[in-house]
Specification:
Structural class: mainly alpha
Distance between the termini: 40 Å
Number of domains: 1
Order of helices and strands: HHH
Helix content: over 70%
Shape: elongated
Number of helices: 3
Number of strands: 0
Largest sheet: none
Amino acid sequence: MNLLLADATSSYTAVAGGLSIDSLTYYMFWIATVCMGAGTVFFFLERSNVPAKYRTTLTVSGLITGIACFHYFRMAAIYEGGASRRNIVTSTGSSPHR
């Protein structure tokens, strides 16, 4: 319970400290992309340090995390594109996305 309370408190502090929800979302996409990329590098570099019967498992794990890294990178770009379109105001003063 204390862990959940601490997490909620730190999220509130981050938002109250000047970070918007968009900034938090970008940060989470960045963290996920870096983690998946680091996992990919780790799996491929450690392939030679495990018994032969586990090398295929590390190769598949590296491929999965590599694909996930690419998808998180693309999702962040799509989210950023959507965020910029949400704030568009036409010359008449109305938003085109209603």
